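Lecture 7 notes: from sequence to structure.
We start with the chain below.
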Amino acid sequence: MTSVAEPEEATTRVLEAAAARGLAIELRERPAAASLPEAAALLGLRPADIVKTLVVKRADDTYLFALVPGDRAISWPKLRAVVGVNKLQLPDAARALAATGYERGTIVPIGSTTEWPVYADQRIVGTRIAMGAGAHGYSLFVDADELVIAYDATIADISQELTSDRPS
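Predicted structure tokens for the same chain:
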């Protein structure tokens, strides 16, 4: 079973992984937030400027990262079409931790204990984004285009508008 990393260990892993890829990032400590809109307010950002990193499980028990703007939800039909599979799902918290080394709410491809393919929603292209930083109470800022290049991410339309029946 994978244990939760201490904040300093997790953020060090993020910083070292970014440096190894030549990726310029900024880590910023912030008060804990109970939701993405609250985190956006604490950082003086719009929810769209925070990118959610979702770890997604394939039927063959491998994973991928989906990067989706905070004001949108993942579109399962679109993501399945881009990945070329019939079934994808969000793993439970324990499997997400085992797959990435990060707790939900802190997951980021940078420094993940396993390098999974990255799929980025096209709406993040050309922007500076904030995202999880591997530990609660921290945010990471990065140029989305540099992140896409560093992780050879697939860029596609993989999101949809938030609705009451699909709030995240």
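Points to note: The chain has a mean pLDDT of 92. The longest strand covers residues 50-58.
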